[in-house]
Amino acid sequence: MCWADYRGAGHALKAAREKVPQARAGLLPSLSLVGASSRQTGQVSFSEAPYADRDVRNRSWNLQLTQPLWRAASWAALDQAGQQELLAEAQFRQIEQELILRTAQAYLDVLVAQEAERVASRQTAAVGQQLGLARRNFEVGTGTVTDVHEAQSRLDLASAQAVAADSELQNKQAELERILGEPQSSLPRLREGSRLPGIEPAGLQPWLDSAREQSIPVRIAQSTLDVADGEIAKSRAAHSPSLDLTAGYGSTFTSGSISSPADIPVRARSGQVGVTLTIPIYAGGGVQARLREALALKDKAGEDLEAARRQAVAQARQAYTGVVNGGAQVIALASAVASSKSALDANKIGFRIGTRINVDVLNAEQQLYAAQRDWYKARAETLMQGLRLKAANATLAEADLKTIDDLLEPGSL
Predict the structure, then answer these.
(1) Which has the closest alpha carbon to 228: 309, 302, 307, 285?
(2) With a threshold of 0.90, does the pTM exceed it?
(3) Phi and psi dihedrals of 410, rounded to 5?
(4) Mean pLDDT of 290-315
């Protein structure tokens, strides 16, 4: 899904909106002008006389007006066209929401990847400092070679993690570029002190009820069912008689007849008004077959609607749980980050005074950076679950992206 898909969906919607005028045309008058000119030549023998050349010219024109008075099938087609337009609008809205979700997901993925790369770089630098300290302590005899090897091993691991984090960041940036159509430099981070938006209403049941009736997939399924109803009405209307008012005016000219020895030019002008009644009687069983087909498709559309409602409720429940649990996880991880910082500071002091060994400091550093990375990722995922919750209730809009934008800090990493 990208902006090109969104623009294509917009063109598809514009095309679908022409179905109503097309269907309405079947109920409006039609006017046509037909003109013809012909020449007939040949040799004709009259009363056993020698063949003689004949040359006859004909010209005519006719203006014909037809006004439908009663066409049940055309009225059914007009009603169905309205439902098809609603279906197209719901499909366009779904693509719009999918694009918002994909864009937000790609954007937040880049932020998380940037943070992971930043944390990996800081961890590599910190482990490098610890390695230098371990070497100095070993050289002066206050440390062991085990500390040096342990620090070197952690530095190699941190370097590998930094490379992997940089590769992941490039992949996420490429995905965001694919969606937006243009490259993006480093993006602003989520402000550390910013509060995540809450849920309104706070209870689960209102979200489930709204999703069951208002979600975009449910609207699409409902519109599909309505279109199927329209197809049934059209199929049944094929049995109904139709009545048209016709009116015409025309002129004809002929220079004679090839089968008559006398050339007598004839000019005529005439007009006519009347009604035409058409009563379908039998069409080889095709009408009944189309009706059975329409009835079967309606049954399918009804089952699809029920499946869409269940899926919408499940998605809303999952997203709601993700927001609630994500908020709790963010709070817990924020506490874990603060505790890990205190633990790291304590281990560094203990290492200087000899009550802690080098591996204790390295473990504390790894725990801190892992907590920082997980905390940032949990915030981004909680924001994403909030967007999914609104999408499940068809309330997702660009304003929700603005809410996330307000949580960002200026500048880049």
Answers:
(1) 302
(2) no
(3) -70, 160
(4) 93
